Amino acid sequence: MQKYFPSDFNFPLWNMQQQCQESLILELVRFTRAFYYQQSNPLGLVDDTIASLQDCQQYHVEGLSEIYQLMAAIYRFQNTDNQLEFIFDGRSLEEKLQDDWKEAFHKMLFDLNLKTSFTRIILDYCILNKGKNAAALSTLKSTVLSFFKIKWSKKTGIALATA
Length: 163
Known about the structure:
The chain has a two-stranded antiparallel ribbon with strand order 1-2. The two termini are 26 Å apart. The protein has six helices and two strands. A hairpin with a 3-residue loop joins strand 1 (150-153) and strand 2. Helix 3 (64-78) runs parallel beside helix 6 (135-147). By secondary structure, the protein is mainly alpha-helical. It has one domain. The protein is globular and about 50 Å long. The mean pLDDT is 86.
């Protein structure tokens, strides 16, 4: 995860994001599939694409760890003020960080799925073509970076994109 944001030293948040990675990647695919049903097929008609989506029980998610790491780094980049907090509701720092991250992740997912290209790439890569389109991940990464107005370079990591 340090690849995208090398100057980040928020280790509690980074560790928690690592622990949540597998479950949130699956949630990314499930949410995207449900979002597609709701937005593109509100009448519930079954065509070949919908049948393929419904029949799929196992997702191809191997390449999505890169996208998850990018989204996690963007969150840490945008939320640098959460390291030293007093929590008065009885939760531990880890629980608060996890709740905040999951809430932000779901908002990011919803916002990204408003871009039809994101939804289609996720469905195509994870369900319909089972990872056969390697270029899809590069396009997906570009979509995420441009959506959040972020640029990334190997030398400096992520930064705000300038017009």
